[in-house]
């Protein structure tokens, strides 16, 4: 079974984060939400592995503020 | 009025006084079926086909008004093939393979069902429910002429049902007053609002979807192709969905989502329906409304489909959303699953608890159908702002990238259930065998020579299918005869036999049930193990 990676794994993380913000520049809330949704689906398809995706959903849900 | 409308109006099985109404003591029949819809007609035909004396009762005397169920899948067509009722359906039905998906004002993508080759029947046909019912009644008349023990009684409304343990008593209302009938077995195919279920006080719980759909059949001379068109959030029905699908005789099915807070009576009026349809079809398209209805739906099933000697089949037992054509299609498969078991029990060959496996296998199928149709509904009618955002993201992506297209869910079209884990099914003992023919699966068809197909040789009896291995021509066990069908890969010119039944295995033996589902399979014939598998399928062994 594949394990979800929860340690730093993105090559040049600051660049990625900046690119993510830039993609949202000038978008209203609805368009931003739509972009996030499309991005999520593109990434999920790239990962593909259902086990990893299930762990990712759980990891994201678990990190909600209490 | 066009010719099709006459079907609604002509009594197909008008009321006739039966000798049972004058009997001094109530007549007792082997089987009574309530409801002459697609499921009741199929059940009655299958029962009579197996030689079981049957009376089919219906409160009406005509086919259903309006086309209702329109999409019939391969597996039900195969069942009608087994019952000799298939040709008229296929001749009349419209075959289709292409579906188009629209989102807002855009044509997002189209798909081809690319029906698998090497099957006798098409993947789907569209056919109005009234035609299906008419053709099934024709089949009943044909069987009656050949001496089949089957009666169909119109305007016979069942007004009370009591289960007596070893049989059932019903009271029937007719234009000549009431009479009483007894039966060994009662099969209630009386629809989602089943009066039988209500009379027995049985529950039918599930999820209600707060939405209304306008369903309209229109007759038009239009050059829309024979494709299934589905719109999400179209300009002519903002925020909602729409479906256009062709039926025979130039009749088109239109399904428009309306939302929850509407005036149902007003929405049904032609002065409101026609502008909606014009917005969809174009101002210049001439059409005539054949049938309009507004429906809501629930996804629910009975906890058990068997209550003593009363069995529930079709919508009376389970109700699904219409997305995916899983209603009538699954009900017809209920009949297919039930009748051979009833035959064995009635003949005293199998114990009565064999009938419990009908409940086990078909509640599993119902759960699968409910799951699939609920997921379709959640995609088509998102329940929250976020689910709508995600749904729209899938559609936007689908326009550009193939990966998102399988996520678009406008209905996962009906496929048969594999009875994994059924008490009647033996563990898979064919190493390297294709998963699609594992025990519990419906047998996929295979061409055998020029104009012959495998499924023509299966069904109604137990068959021992051998591929490239030896076995006796007949096995007798517990009063059941299993007949061998010997095939070889040498004659398998298309390669489908090997692909569908051997996979990596060098040879195979399949024990196939009368409903054309696999009961057991092994690499070679083994007398002791095959007999055990057969007893298990008769409800006489506990599954491994």
TrEMBL record, chain A:
InterPro entries with a match to the protein in the record: DUF2783
Any Pfam family: DUF2783
Name of the featured protein: DUF2783 domain-containing protein
TrEMBL record, chain B:
Domain FAD-binding: 30-369
SUPFAM superfamilies per the UniProt record, alphabetical: FAD/NAD(P)-binding domain (SSF51905)
Keywords from the UniProt entry: FAD, Flavoprotein
Superkingdom to which the source organism belongs: Bacteria
Signal peptide: none
GO MF annotations in UniProt: FAD binding; oxidoreductase activity, acting on paired donors, with incorporation or reduction of molecular oxygen, NAD(P)H as one donor, and incorporation of one atom of oxygen
Cofactor(s) required, per the database record: FAD
PANTHER family: BINDING MONOOXYGENASE, PUTATIVE (JCVI)-RELATED, TRK SYSTEM POTASSIUM UPTAKE PROTEIN
Protein name (database record): 3-(3-hydroxy-phenyl)propionate hydroxylase
């Amino acid at each position: 079974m594949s394990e979800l990676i929860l340690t730093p794994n993105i090559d040049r993380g600051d660049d990625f984060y900046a690119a993510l913000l830039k993609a949202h520049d000038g978008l209203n809330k609805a368009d931003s939400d739509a972009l996030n949704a499309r991005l999520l689906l593109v990434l999920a398809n790239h990962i593909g592995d259902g086990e990893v995706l299930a762990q990712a959903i759980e990891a994201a849900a678990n990190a909600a503020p209490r | 009025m066009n010719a099709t409308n006459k079907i609604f109006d002509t009594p197909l099985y008008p009321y006739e006084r039966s000798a049972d109404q004058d009997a001094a003591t109530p007549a007792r029949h082997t089987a009574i079926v309530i409801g002459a819809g697609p499921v009741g007609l199929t059940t009655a035909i299958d029962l009579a086909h197996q030689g079981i004396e049957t009376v089919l009762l219906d409160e009406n005397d005509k086919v259903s008004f309006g086309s209702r169920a329109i999409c019939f899948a391969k597996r039900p067509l195969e069942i009608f093939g087994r019952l000799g009722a298939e040709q008229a359906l296929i001749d009349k039905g419209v075959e289709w393979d292409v579906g188009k998906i629209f989102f807002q004002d855009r044509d997002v993508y189209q798909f081809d069902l690319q029906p698998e080759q090497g099957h006798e029947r098409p993947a789907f046909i569209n056919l109005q429910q009234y035609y299906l019912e008419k053709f099934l009644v024709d089949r009943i008349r044909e069987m009656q002429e050949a001496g089949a023990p089957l009666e169909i009684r119109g305007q016979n409304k069942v007004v009370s049902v009591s289960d007596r343990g070893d049989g059932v008593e019903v009271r029937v209302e007719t234009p000549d007053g009431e009479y009483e009938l007894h039966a060994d077995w009662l099969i209630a195919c009386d629809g989602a609002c089943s009066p039988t279920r209500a009379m027995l006080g049985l529950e039918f719980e599930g999820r209600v979807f707060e939405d209304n759909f306008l369903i309209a059949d229109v007759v038009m001379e239009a050059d829309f192709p024979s494709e299934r068109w589905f719109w999400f959030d179209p300009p002519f029905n903002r925020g909602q969905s729409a479906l256009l699908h062709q039926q025979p005789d130039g009749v088109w099915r239109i399904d428009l989502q309306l939302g929850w807070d509407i005036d149902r009576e007003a929405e049904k009026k032609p002065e409101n329906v026609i502008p909606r349809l014009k917005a969809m079809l174009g101002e210049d398209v001439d059409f005539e409304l054949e049938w309009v209805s507004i429906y809501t739906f629930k996804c629910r099933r009975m906890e058990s489909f068997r209550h003593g000697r009363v069995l529930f089949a079709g919508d009376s037992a389970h109700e699904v959303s219409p997305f995916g054509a899983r209603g009538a299609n699954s009900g017809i498969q209920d009949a297919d699953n039930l009748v051979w078991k009833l035959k064995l029990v009635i003949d005293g060959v199998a114990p009565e608890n064999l009938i419990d496996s009908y409940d086990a296998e078909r509640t599993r199928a119902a759960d699968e159908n409910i799951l699939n149709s609920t997921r379709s509904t959640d995609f088509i009618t998102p329940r929250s702002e976020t689910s709508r955002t995600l749904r729209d993201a899938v559609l936007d992506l689908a326009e550009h990238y193939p990966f998102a297209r399988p996520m678009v869910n406008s209905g996962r079209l009906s496929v048969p259930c594999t009875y994994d884990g059924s008490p009647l099914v033996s563990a898979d003992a064919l190493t390297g065998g294709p998963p699609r023919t594992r025990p519990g699966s419906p047998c996929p068809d295979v061409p055998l020579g020029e104009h012959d197909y495998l499924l023509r040789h299966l069904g109604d009896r137990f068959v021992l299918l051998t591929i490239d291995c030896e076995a006796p021509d007949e096995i007798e066990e517990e009063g059941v005869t299993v007949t061998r069908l010997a095939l070889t890969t040498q004659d398998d010119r298309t390669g489908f036999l090997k692909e569908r039944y051997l996979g990596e295995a060098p040879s195979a033996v399949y024990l196939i049930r009368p409903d054309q589902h696999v009961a057991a399979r092994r690499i070679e014939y083994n007398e002791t193990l095959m007999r055990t598998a057969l007893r298990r399928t008769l409800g006489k062994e506990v599954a491994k």
